[in-house]
Automatic annotation (TrEMBL):
Gene behind the chain: SEC31
InterPro entries: Sec16_Sec23-bd, SEC31-like, WD40/YVTN_repeat-like_dom_sf, WD40_repeat_CS, WD40_repeat_dom_sf, WD40_rpt
Any one GO BP annotation for this protein: protein transport
Protein name, as recorded: Protein transport protein SEC31
Function: Component of the coat protein complex II (COPII) which promotes the formation of transport vesicles from the endoplasmic reticulum (ER). The coat has two main functions, the physical deformation of the endoplasmic reticulum membrane into vesicles and the selection of cargo molecules.
Domain Sec16 Sec23-binding: 537-737
WD repeats: 111-145, 164-199
């Protein structure tokens, strides 16, 4: 709202309207304006929306019989009423609606009950029909404007009050009223009991021989029923005093330093108790924070006293200030801005005052009461006004999706896709039933039966249609007749007739035994009158098979022709079949099918059969199609169906053909929301498992629409916190596929999540040999290997030097950060000799650097060489090595990839990377160690103090090694996912054994646990209730926890099992204190008092710090359980 003003010397009062703010102004008593008029008026103004430097024009105006001391506007739902306390003691009430309508009789009531000028006037904020007024001689009246303006006194007249200067209703308790007087007293009234409750005395010049300063203004705290503030117009005490009625002997605090002269008015914002306005004789209007006592803002100073300041309680963004310079200034709130630049060319402001009140912090109604933001992976970050805490919690927006996705992943990982398919097929959906068939061994036969064709039914029906025939005699009988025939002779005993080969021997299974005599043909007919049968017989007798076949085809004796054709020329049978199919195809439909089967080309059936018989065509393909032909023909049939809009039938064909891109294109059209997206992914996953689909992943990407669905599905899973499953679906998208803009972003986010945890390989301390007593020079404790630049910077900010600082024995050697592959030849060293260059192709560590023997402790024999020392690229974890369990198998360590590397090689100093000498070094004496021979392992480094580990090479950005004169080969970079070797913690200086102690005994070997992990047979009786209770709650968490809480439950289980192992082995110290605490945790969890359970858990950690790691599992368990239903 822009800065506006009213050219009046008047008392203002804000109206109850919020959208269109109205303000009333009554001519103030005790002042004259420039016209020297004695007329008193009440005017109504409305704030304008345009930026104008002119005074507001009044909407309505009415005269009063005296000037105003106080003005109040009731906070009713409508325009309400306006009450004026006049200087002659009258109280006049106007109807605001009538004033706005310019009614001739806007006055509702006028009373002359007071004997002096009205010094206090205010409507009750809870009951707008109640109004309190105060005047001279301690007169206080309560008015009920609904009951004919009946008035009553709050109690017997107080002797502490003289002239009432202000009064105010309590903002929390509606029957409490406070009245202030020029006598310096403030009286609090209880209207229910109609008595004086308590009185307060102003603090000022008391004790200095003067009277108590009068109270000019008073205001109740909007949020607290027992706190109020008072101010005095006395120039000797221009302070605001904050009182608490629970201890009314003295003010609880004083707001000083804001005014140099007396304070005339106060106004406490009801929307924000941290904003209190005060105005006074020093022409200033100050905004305080009563809680801290600080000044949070100030209005522009006036040229005269500011006798009234008010918040617009209906719209606290507005406030007013009235001064004796003849203006009522209207302001709005704004944030505190930077100081403007002193620009001599900037235009000067046309108004002498700023348009708003600038605050250092936003008020409560503009500040966010709470806030929340979703983070990646189902993380919800939120805050509220209860405290300066930001909470991060896991939020699963789609619990059904998360549960189904996790189940699908478990099914696929367990190879149980067929079981899932069977469950879905029970719903009767045809697509799932076809998918179930694809898992069967005789899938084609079952698909034929699924399409409605039963071979047994057809066979039985054909059997019914075939007439029974007399069985033909066995071949044995024919053989007997042949033996009795006197004319039978062996063809082998003489030459063949006409030197023609005998006819082919009939196969035993096809031989038919005929009986009885017959005639070959009728000899009475000559050849000219022979019928077709005779001609066929003659042609057969003469061996003219082709002529006989031709005549058979002409006479449509197709069966005879097909039997004779194999005995003719090689192509005769093919020509007979072709002619047969050409003539018979139009007569019977099965002949066309027979042609397709015999020719081995089923494309005619696929391309030309009526689509209403698509299932018959598919059954034919399942029966006769061979090899790859089956998939191609099924796809062709599906394409025909798809073009005709029969997508459901086409899906069956595409499923049978194993064509993922076609069937996925149809399924994708049904994707509408996350639920249907999961159904799509589930079907595709089962289909891939059924046909063992392998994606080529090369352009052109036929599965591009499916890749987009994978990206969308992975994003939905990542939003539920299922990072590992989401990453698996992204892995199904080819790396070269770039059509989805969300793909690289999602891949990068998932890459930054800790999907694959590190495997920590513990290493025990190296046992040192017994040596004679020798003086030991203190050295630096074991250092952690230096990390790459970013990690190093973060770790250095957190590390603290343990047990004091000691000089290091070796400097930190830097390596270029940009060199991802280590070269096969070392860079130029800065030592006293030049190493022999190694042959290319052999990856070797840098050669040792010259060291000053004086800086190395002597008297110790170095340990024997170990080639199996675990080695890792990532930085070593700064935690102590864990004691391995005897029952668990030890993980294999990652040994150094350098074939000739030694256990702890000294770092090589690279050219251009040598820093200034560090403490603890002795100047070089010129001696150096000999270089190692090429191809052999270098000798062990000089002996060092036990526990000392030289600093490895740092990665220094910007460092460029010197070029090598020979070719360099590169070794592959080490994987950043793997095992981390945790080193023993650094030794304390006071724990460094002397030479005599070292010679006394070797380092003892750590003993294993008393009982194996998981054993509960030796659990002490006192721990059994705790173990039983926590085990039961853990089982409930594992069963009902959301998928996003799976990791927390697993971590809690791992820690609790370790705790139970310690209890079983009776290794928990301080059982007398811990047993009741653990039982308290279980009891609180049983009663669902989770906050109390967490408090007891924290107490356990304080009592037994060594159980901290295990007891964290209790905390995780409680956090999961409190999210579960009853």
């Amino acid at each position: 709202m822009v800065y506006q003003f009213i050219e009046r010397t008047a008392i203002p009062a804000w109206g109850p309207q919020q959208s269109q703010p109205l303000i009333a102004a009554g001519t103030v008593a005790g002042a004259m304006d420039a016209t020297f008029s004695n007329t008193s008026t009440l005017e109504l103004f409305q704030l304008s929306s345009d930026d104008s430097d002119k005074s507001l024009e009044s909407l309505s105006k009415v005269e009063a019989n005296a000037r105003f001391q106080r003005l109040a506007w009731s906070a009713s739902s409508g325009p309400g009423v306006i009450a004026g306390g006049l200087e002659n003691g009258d109280i006049t009430v106007w109807d605001a609606r009538k004033l706005l309508d310019h009614d001739d009789a806007p006055v509702v009531h006028t009373s002359s009950a007071h004997t002096g000028s009205v010094g206090g006037l205010e409507f009750n904020p809870f009951a707008p029909n109640l109004m309190a007024s105060g005047s001279a001689n301690g007169e206080v009246f309560i008015w009920d404007i609904v009951s004919d303006f009946k008035s009553y006194s709050p109690g017997p007249r107080s002797q502490r009050l003289d002239l009432v200067t202000d009064l105010c209703w309590n903002n929390q308790v509606q029957h409490i009223l406070a009245t202030a007087s020029n006598s310096g007293s403030l009286v609090v009234w209880d209207l229910r009991s109609r008595r004086e409750v308590i009185s307060l005395g102003s603090v000022g010049a008391i004790g200095q021989g003067s009277s108590r300063p009068g109270i000019s203004a008073a205001e109740w705290n909007p949020q607290s029923a027992t706190q109020l503030v008072t101010a005095s117009s006395d120039d000797s005490s221009p302070v605001v005093m904050l009182w608490d009625l629970r201890n009314a002997q003295a003010p609880s605090s004083t707001l000083a330093g804001g005014h140099q002269r007396g304070i005339l008015s106060l106004s406490w914002c009801r929307k924000d108790s941290g904003l209190l306005l005060s105005s006074g004789k020093d022409n200033r209007t100050v905004c305080w924070n009563p809680e801290s006592g600080a000044i949070v803002g100030e209005l522009p100073p006036s040229s005269n006293w500011v006798y009234d300041v008010q918040w617009n309680q209906a719209n606290p963004n507005l406030l007013s200030g009235a001064s004796f310079d003849g203006r009522i200034n209207l302001y709005s709130l704004s944030r505190e801005s930077d100081s403007p630049v002193d620009d001599p060319f900037a235009p000067r402001a046309s108004t002498p005052f700023a348009p708003s009140l600038s605050l250092k912090s936003p008020p409560k109604w503009l500040a966010r009461p709470c806030g929340a933001s979703f983070g990646f992976g189902g993380q919800l970050v939120h805050f509220n006004q209860t405290g300066p805490l930001v909470s991060i919690s896991e939020f699963v927006s789609e619990p059904e999706l998360a549960q189904q996705a996790q189940r699908l992943e478990d099914v696929l990982e367990g190879g149980r896709a067929a079981e899932l398919c069977g469950e879905r097929a029970q719903g009767g959906e045809r697509e799932w039933q076809v998918l179930q068939i694809l898992f069967e061994e005789d899938a084609r036969d079952k698909l034929v039966r699924f399409l409605g064709f039963d071979k047994d039914q057809v066979k039985a029906r054909i059997k019914d249609l075939v007439k029974p025939t007399t069985p033909i005699e066995e071949k044995k009988e024919a053989e007997e007749e042949e033996e009795e025939n006197p004319f039978a002779s062996s063809s082998a005993d003489g030459d063949d007739f006409f030197d023609k080969p005998p006819p082919p021997q009939a196969v035993d299974d096809l031989a038919v035994a005929f009986s009885g005599a017959f005639r070959i043909y009728d000899k009475s007919k000559d050849i000219g009158s022979e019928d077709a049968d005779g001609l066929i017989t003659r042609a057969i007798l003469l061996g003219d098979v082709e002529a006989a076949v031709t005549l058979c085809m002409e006479q449509e004796l197709f069966a005879d022709a097909l039997i004779l054709a194999p005995y003719g020329s090689p192509d005769l049978a093919a020509r007979v079949q072709k002619e047969y199919f050409a003539k018979r195809a139009q007569q019977a439909a099965y002949v066309r099918l027979l042609h397709a089967i015999v020719s081995g080309d089923l494309s005619d059936i696929v391309n030309n059969a009526d689509l209403s018989e698509w299932d018959e065509v598919l059954a034919l393909l399942c029966t006769y199609a061979q090899g790859d032909q089956f998939s191609a023909l099924c796809e062709a049939l599906g394409q025909r169906l798809l073009r005709e809009g029969e997508g459901g039938n086409a899906v069956v064909c595409f499923l049978a053909s194993g064509n993922l891109d076609k069937v996925a294109g149809i399924w994708i059209k049904d994707k509408k929301d996350v639920r249907t997206l999961h159904e799509l992914v589930e079907r595709v996953a089962v289909f891939r498992s059924a046909v063992q689909f392998v994606d080529s992943g090369v352009e052109p990407f036929l599965l591009a629409p499916l890749y987009d669905c994978y990206v969308e599905y992975a994003g939905a899973l990542a939003a539920q916190g299922l990072f590992d499953i989401a990453a698996k679906y992204l892995d199904r998208v080819p790396a070269d596929y770039q059509a989805s803009a969300a793909l690289p972003v999602l891949r990068n986010r998932l890459a930054l999540t800790d999907i694959t945890p590190w495997t920590v390989v513990p290493i025990g301390p190296i046992q040192q040999p017994i040596q004679p007593a020798q003086p030991v020079q203190p050295v630096q404790p074991a250092q952690q290997p230096v990390q790459p630049p970013l990690q190093q910077q973060q770790q250095q900010q957190q590390q603290q030097q343990m047990y004091g600082a000691y000089p290091t024995a070796y400097p930190t050697t830097t390596m270029p950060a940009a060199q991802h592959y280590s070269t096969a030849q070392p860079a130029y060293p800065t030592g006293g000799f030049a190493p022999a260059y190694q042959q290319p192709g052999v990856f070797q560590p840098p050669p040792p650097q010259p060291l000053n023997p004086a800086s190395i402790p002597t008297g110790f024999t170095p340990p024997p060489r170990r080639d199996d020392v675990p080695w890792n690229d990532p930085p070593m974890m700064a935690k102590a090595a864990k004691r391995p369990s005897q029952a668990a198998a030890k993980p294999s360590a990652i040994v150094s990839p350098f074939p000739n590397g030694r256990d702890t090689p000294p770092p090589a100093q690279m050219a251009q990377a040598v820093g200034p000498p560090r403490g603890g070094f002795v100047p070089n004496t010129g001696k150096s160690l000999p270089p190692p021979p090429p191809g052999f392992a270098p000798p062990s480094q000089p002996p060092v103090h036990p526990g000392f580990v030289p600093q490895p090479m740092q990665m220094q950005p910007g460092f460029v090694p010197q070029p090598m004169p020979t070719h360099q080969q590169q070794a592959p970079p080490q994987s950043m996912r793997g095992q981390i070797v945790s080193a023993p913690p650094p030794a304390r200086p006071d724990a460094v054994a002397s030479a005599a102690a070292i010679a006394a005994a070797a380092v003892p070997k750590a003993a294993g646990p008393k009982y194996p992990s998981g054993d509960r047979s030796h659990l002490p009786e006192e721990w059994k209730p705790t173990v039983a209770g926590l085990t039961g709650h853990l089982a409930r968490a594992k069963q009902f926890a959301a998928p996003g809480q799976k990791r927390m439950v697993e971590d809690a289980e791992r820690r609790l099992l370790a705790l139970f192992d310690s209890m079983n082995c009776d290794e928990v110290k301080g059982k007398e204190k811990l047993v009741p605490l653990f039982e308290g945790v279980v009891q609180n969890i049983d009663a669902r008092h989770f906050a109390a359970a967490l408090n007891v858990q924290a107490e356990i950690m304080a009592v037994s710090p060594e159980l901290t790691s295990s007891v964290v599992g209790v905390k995780h368990l409680v956090n999961v359980l409190k999210t579960l239903p009853m």
